[in-house]
Amino acid sequence: MASAKFGQNRNLVSAIALCATMLFPASAVADEVVLKSADGTVNLVGEFIEFKDNNYVIRTDLGDLRISATRVRCEGDACPTSAATEADVIIAGSQSVGVGVMPLLMSGYGAFLGAEVTVSSTAVEGEILADVVGEEGFGDPIGSYLVSSTGSIDAFRKLLNRTAQIGMSSRRIRPDEARALRDDGAGNMIAPTNEHIFAVDALVVITHPDNPVDELTTDQLRGIYSGAITNWSQIGGNDAAIAVYGRADGTGTRSIFEERLYGEDVPAAPRSMTIADNSTEMAASVNADPNGIGFVGYAFQRGAKPLTLINECGLRMTPDAFSARTEEYALQRFLYLYNRADTLDDKGADFVAYVTSNAADSVINKAGFIDLDIARQQQTADSARARQLTDANVDAFEAGVMREMLTRMENYDRLSATFRFRTGSSTLDTRGLLNLERLADYLEDAPAGTKVLMVGFTDDVGAFESNRALSVGRAQQVLDTLQSFAGDRLAGINFETTGFGEVAPSACNSTENGRGINRRVEIWIESVNG
Fold first, then answer.
1. pLDDT tens digits for 83-106?
2. Which H or E run contains 238?
3. Which of 22, 247, 437, 508 is deepest in the core (most CB within 10 A)?
């Protein structure tokens, strides 16, 4: 449905000549080059012969080999260079986004347009060029897109100096970056027209598959990455020194990891920490090191063992897609595209519109990331939430509210769409606004008469009964907002609202971030067996 809307809203096919060309130094034909793939599976050395039909041809001891430029990067003086500055749209920033999902998004964009896309590596490390030609390659050129993958910080630097039209980031823009761009005429960088969430990722803490440790408390993880804990035996493992792997300072992945783990008071990393250039390299290093520990994006686990995390309140957090979508996994993060309001042209805007539509969901999943679609999960009697409610040490009044919640859970599944509010505010946050259209589309396809329960929750600041009343009011507010947004599309759905206040927290109430996670409205839908 969103695909159709996207097609109606924009004329996606424009005839623009491709400018990016491959330039070859004539004197370099016999020089040695190295062809490398990003995942390390290809590493070939030979004499450069030619670049033809998007293939490198090199001469090796095994004879002449042809390797697709979509699989490898060429290193060496003889490699062809790209006239990158002539690309129609330049996209720069996060390596997690640029390497992890952007090549597939480019191919998906071409398929969406009915076009042919040729993706090739340039001579610059971490850079690809996508040429898009309409009518399955028989039509007019649509555009050329250069993707430069370095780090999230470069997304905002290059937007500021106007050397990129779109920035990729695995973290949200920082206030100082947003102010600098605003002052340069870029507009409000957190407005929906400039800031675009297109996927969810979970930073997964990984160890070697043979490591006997299956879970860590967040305090233990802090100790490891501050150098206070140095041996696995200190946390129930083997008597062996912990080999700590991390990412370079300034990368979005490291920034999110440290922010979620430490807050604003980030200690110095252990001097012995080994820096990995990217998540693929980190996963490979941990997989090869029986005593290693690292953190990677959800898409990059590559056979390493993911660890369950236990927060200060004793809540277990599993790095799965549902908990990442609901923002209830501590190391969850969004992936963003950013643009200036004053420099984005139609070709760039059309690509952003595709990436943020549900037409791109399957591509995002294929890349191993988590799309923004609505997922459904049963609320079983043996679930972690049910055990939390059953085992809670509370007075008789609160216990009664918990029993009431358990009874309602029996007949409903939970949807991943979750709406949150700022402290003392009736305004939905950015993700909540994004959920409106997705939820409306999902419920529009539900059978007539389907029962949907809007369920409110709060943090634990204030009196219990007042919080419960507040939670019911917020549930009603979300329902009113949804019905206003969807109009008569949801006329066949039977809605009801309720609230349980501060019971069943999803995070600790000891921090503002945790309280923000707990101030939410969940969407429950009648279960098949309900």
1. 454 799 999 999 889 988 999 999
2. none
3. 247
- Edge-to-edge strand list for the sheet holding 305-306: 274-276, 243-247, 292-296, 204-207, 305-306
pLDDT digits (tens, 9 = 90+) for 162-203: 999 999 998 999 999 999 999 999 999 999 899 999 999 889
Q: Coil, strand, or helix at residue 201? A: strand
Cα distance between the two ends of the chain: 28
Bridge partners, 46 (sequence order): 33
pTM, full prediction: 0.75
What are the residues whose beta carbons fall under 8 Å from the beta carbon of 460, sequence distance 6 or more?
467, 502, 505, 509, 515, 518
| Residue showing tokens 């039977």 | 494
Longest CA–CA separation in the chain, Å: 85
Say if CB 452 and CB 417 are below 8 A apart: no
Q: How does pLDDT run across 27-47, given as a tens digit for each residue?
A: 344 588 888 876 667 788 999
Task: For residue 282, give both structure tokens.
Answer: 């980190």
* Full DSSP string of 33-62: EEEE-TTSS-EEEEEEEEEETTEEEEEETT
CA distance 96 to 204: 14
Residue 426's contacts (CB-CB under 8 Å, 6 or more residues apart) are 474, 477
In the numeric block, which tokens belong to residue 168?
């990729």
Compute, in degrees rounded to 10, the torsion defined by CA atoms 217, 218, 224, 228. Answer: -90
